[in-house]
Design brief:
Helices cover 31% and strands 32% of the residues. It is built from 4 helices and 9 strands.
Length: 183
């Protein structure tokens, strides 16, 4: 009798697996999926930008005038983490570029956001300002230190694309509601 029970358990397990596989196959066939769809979803960073502009003790930078094929992919502002502002993009050729700003100690902050890049000792003129060139095994970067804030443009993009992003960065102010004129 014990031998019979063991065969029934194994048979039941195979039957259950067959039912589960059949159900999974039916679900796969009837759930729409687009293999050609772009998995990268652009983010709208305006709300976080306004929050950062109002809260940060420095002028928060945003890219102005970049081509439409630069896709914003990530955004964050963390007031408790040294007022850290992050805005990530994909370039037209699918390379990553991030704008990072913070009031944290520069050396620690730069090393963290560039994934261990090192100062090359060289500078690069971008939009009339001298940015430090950093190079690393994962990311390269352009670094600008200014009045208590460090700005880093970093990523896997080419040096030209990093410079394009740095040149596009402008301090903008949050929109303020207008008050109606008094009669």
């Amino acid at each position: 009798m014990a031998g019979m029970r063991g065969k029934q358990t194994v048979r039941g397990m195979f039957q259950s697996m067959a039912v589960i596989c059949a159900a999974a196959g039916v679900i796969y066939l009837f759930v729409p999926h687009d293999d050609k769809a772009d998995p990268i979803k652009p983010v709208d960073y305006r709300v976080e930008l306004v929050t950062a502009q109002r809260a940060a003790p420095y002028p928060v930078l945003e890219p102005v005038g970049l081509a439409k094929d630069w896709t914003p992919t990530s955004v964050a502002y963390d007031r408790e983490d040294s007022d850290a502002w992050h805005l990530g993009f994909l370039t037209p050729d699918r390379q990553y570029v991030a704008v990072e700003q913070s009031t944290a100690p520069p050396q620690k902050f730069i090393t963290q956001v560039t994934h261990e890049a090192r100062d090359t000792g060289r500078t690069q003129q971008v939009a009339g300002r001298a940015w430090q060139r950093w190079e690393g095994p994962k990311y390269d970067a352009l670094v600008l230190r200014d009045k208590g804030v460090t700005t880093v443009v970093t990523g896997t993009a080419t040096p030209e694309q990093l410079a394009r992003m740095a040149a596009a960065l402008k301090p903008t102010q949050p929109a303020t509601p207008t008050t109606p004129a008094k009669a």
